[in-house]
Amino acid sequence: MVELVPSILSADFARLAEEIAAAERGGGTVIHVDVMDGHFVPNITIGPPVVASLRKATKLPLDCHLMIENPDEFIPAFADAGANWVSVHYEACRHLHRTLELIASHGMKPGVVLNPATRVEVIRDILPMVHHVLIMSVNPGFGGQKFIEFSLDKIRELARLRAELGLRFRIEVDGGVAHDTVERVVQAGAELLVAGNAVFGAGDAERHARDLLDAAKRAAG
Ligand code: DX5
Ligand code: ZN
């Protein structure tokens, strides 16, 4: 089933509770939280204290996308803050297997993220451990970037691998998901559609979320 995962990166950070409520009314079912440290990516955003506040503002699962070096150091703090899903970058983890176990041991759903330049094949052996795989369809760091077309091949490859291995992890896509790309993204096999700019970039998040989700559902058939 296709789900809309609004990314608060493009929301008004002074009005996060209202923005999330609007996106939820528009059909968003998971809230995507982009955590950036200024080292792994060239931008800085938010951390556990904001997650703890968001936890009080919504009942929806909080999907924390960690774009940080040394994620192991911060996983307990995200658990304490009330994060539900935590995904870490393949490129940021020296011991990915251990990091995924650490996330699960804190009662959260582990996910792994691949940058555009990273091949799907490299995560084959750890796929049984993950709840979701996030395919980056832009280089991480900023909202509102242009969708990278070859991400569609990676989504298809991941769906093929999931079938081959008989697994059930969910396929998430992040970056440039908007009206001009959503149909192809869904048809390639993505089920969790992260969208920042397309939901929050132009006011009226409720309407923009609903329009995008409707388009996604039509594409899913
Ligand atoms: C980028 C973030 C994305 C971002 C996507 O590093 O991981 O979650 O919010 O933004 P849009 O949907 O605007 O491309
Ligand atoms: Zn993200």
UniProtKB/TrEMBL annotation:
Enzyme Commission number:
5.1.3.1
Q: Does the keyword Lipid biosynthesis apply?
A: no
Task: Name the domain of life this protein comes from.
Answer: Bacteria
- Provide the catalytic activity annotation: D-ribulose 5-phosphate = D-xylulose 5-phosphate
Q: Which residues bind a divalent metal cation?
A: H32, D34, H65, D174
Report the sequence similarity comment from the record.
Belongs to the ribulose-phosphate 3-epimerase family.
Q: What does this protein do?
A: Catalyzes the reversible epimerization of D-ribulose 5-phosphate to D-xylulose 5-phosphate.
Annotated protein name in UniProt: Ribulose-phosphate 3-epimerase
Q: Which organism is it from?
A: Occallatibacter riparius
